[in-house]
Amino acid sequence: MLQKVLLFRCFNCCLIVLFFFVFPTFSAQELKVGFVQGRGDDALVEEQAFKNAKIEFEVLEKGDYKIDTLLKYDVIAVGVVAYDKNEPLKENFEIVNEYVKEGGYLVTVDFQQDSTWNKIFLPHPLALLDPDLDDNVGVILADHDIFKKPNALTDKHFGGWGGGDFMADGPHEAPNPWKPLITDKPNKWPLVVWAKAGKGDVVFNSLQILQSLGRTGKKEVSEVLHNFLFWRGPRVSGDVVVDAKRKLTTTWSVLKMH
User: Fold this and answer.
1) Which residues contact 31 (CB under 8 A, 6 or more apart)?
2) What CATH number did the domain enclosing 66 receive?
3) Which positions ≥6 away from 197 have C-beta within 8 Å?
4) Which residues contact 234 (CB under 8 A, 6 or more apart)?
5) What does the angle CA 33 – CA 221 – CA 50 come to, to the nearest 5 degrees?
6) Who contacts 66 (Cβ-Cβ below 8 Å, separation ≥6)?
7) What is the pLDDT of residues 29-61, one digit of tens each?
8) Domain total for the chain?
9) Residue 135 in contact with residue 159, Cβ under 8 Å?
């Protein structure tokens, strides 16, 4: 009898080991986040937003805009009007786009300035106009993983943010290959759009996520930031997940707001 129990336990252990090799899992902060800071006035608000969401990040400096350096990051997040105020980003946007095409993920986590926007800043052309909407506008969400992982987001997450304008300077249309992810109800403007580019993904978001979260610390906005950063998982190269050395001590449960 004892022999059978030992064999059963050994079999279970083998199954567990096999599961982790065949079905690799990750906690969100095992993913490495590179951050492009926005305008100086909002630097403290941006920092507070990440602190409120319990997300660790590394600021991209001028010397980091090399493809081998950028490819160390699972996601690169772009701050408040960074394409207007961050000179190294403006000078090296083509290298950032190469990062996406090589399997990276680029996401703007706050609005960008339409008056200085160049439609070729991103891997696919995108024009911006100057609409501003308050946070009671009402939105329609597409069926996309960005709203499913790691949190289940609903339209209730996108209202009552209380951090100023809800969105600013977004596109009025999403030309191919862009796909609308969040559309406002009255105008049908695509407030957030997504596209594949080479092996990677790019999300342009005109919602003021960092500014709202940095000023209010609301749980719902924190969950939005988690999803916008982490929905895709580790950076991929072709069909192969890039296995960098991860921070295994941080679990998703401690990152979530209580």
Assistant:
1) 74, 75, 229, 230, 233, 234, 246
2) 3.40.50.880
3) 97, 100, 101, 123, 124
4) 26, 30, 31, 74, 241, 242, 243, 244
5) 35
6) 95
7) 789 999 999 988 888 999 999 999 999 999 999
8) 1
9) yes
Please write the tens of the pLDDT for every residue from 216-233: 999 999 999 999 999 999
How many C-beta atoms surround the C-beta of residue 118 within 10 A? Answer: 13
Is residue 246 in a domain?
Answer: no
Do the Cβ atoms of 210 and 14 come closer than 8 Å? Answer: no
8-state DSSP, 237: E
Q: Is residue 82 part of a domain?
A: yes
- Could you give phi then psi for residue 119, rounded to 5 degrees? -65, -10
Could you write out the DSSP letters of every residue in 15-48? Answer: HHHHHHHHS----GGGS-EEEE---GGGHHHHHH
- The answer to whether residue 83 sits within a structural domain is yes
The pTM score is 0.84
- Structural domain for 85, as ranges: 30-233
Q: Radius of gyration (Cα) for the chain, nearest Å?
A: 20
Gap between the terminal Cα atoms of the chain: 46
Tell me, yes or no, whether 24 lies in a domain: no
